[in-house]
Amino acid sequence: MDSYFTVFLFFGAAFCISGFSATAHSFCGTCECSRTVVNCSGRNIDHLPTHNIKGIQGLDLSFNNISNFPEHFFRGFLSLQMLNMSYNRIQSIHPNTFASLRNLTHLELANTSLTAEILEISVFGALKDTKIETLILAGLD
């Protein structure tokens, strides 16, 4: 829990320090954006934007209605370190979804509709090439 709190503080501070930059990202009208953090938590999002977000280190998509992620959605997110997809309707994840997230250290998939089989096939294999330190999977189906 301490590492989660530390990660939260780090990205929260980054958000405050870097300031709001509404023109930098394609969906900042819906989400709170800074140069390094995009917070889309609880925005009733049911699909993902089609534009990649360069330079983002933190992306919070929790508490939405997202049900799937395109195979190469995260391809342009080379700097992404923290990704929260908890409390969504995610039932499946393509094995290549996380393949390009080499800098990912913190991933949350808690309270989704993912099963142990899907996690084993789609998530764990893709994370072997990342810098993952924290993986939160509580409340899965």
Describe the structure.
The chain is of the alpha/beta class and 141 residues long. It has 2 domains: 1-77, no CATH class; 103-141, no CATH class. 21% of the residues lie in helices and 12% in strands. It contains 2 helices and 6 strands; from the N terminus they run H-E-E-E-E-E-H-E. A 6-stranded mixed sheet has the order 1-2-3-4-5-6, covered by helices on one side. Strand 5 (106-108), helix 2 and strand 6 (134-136) form a beta-alpha-beta unit. The two termini are 22 Å apart. The model is unreliable at 5-25 (pLDDT under 50). It holds the Pfam family LRR_8. It is a single-pass membrane protein.
Instruction: Tell the overall outline.
Output: globular
Name the structural class. Answer: alpha/beta
Radius of gyration: 14 Å
Count of beta strands: 6
Low-confidence stretches: 5-25
Total DSSP helices: 2
- The residue fraction in helices comes out at 10-25%
In the residues, how many domains can be counted? Answer: 2
On the 0-100 scale, what is the average pLDDT?
81
- Placed side by side, the strands forming the largest sheet appear as 1-2-3-4-5-6
Determine the N-to-C terminus distance: 22 Å
What is the strand content? 5-15%
**Can you write the helix and strand succession as a string?**
HEEEEEHE
Major sheet characteristics: 6 strands, mixed
InterPro entries: KCNMA1_auxiliary, Leu-rich_rpt, Leu-rich_rpt_typical-subtyp, LRR_dom_sf
Protein name: LRRNT domain-containing protein
Membrane topology: Single-pass membrane protein
Keywords: Cell membrane, Disulfide bond, Ion channel, Ion transport, Leucine-rich repeat, Membrane, Repeat, Signal, Transmembrane, Transmembrane helix, Transport
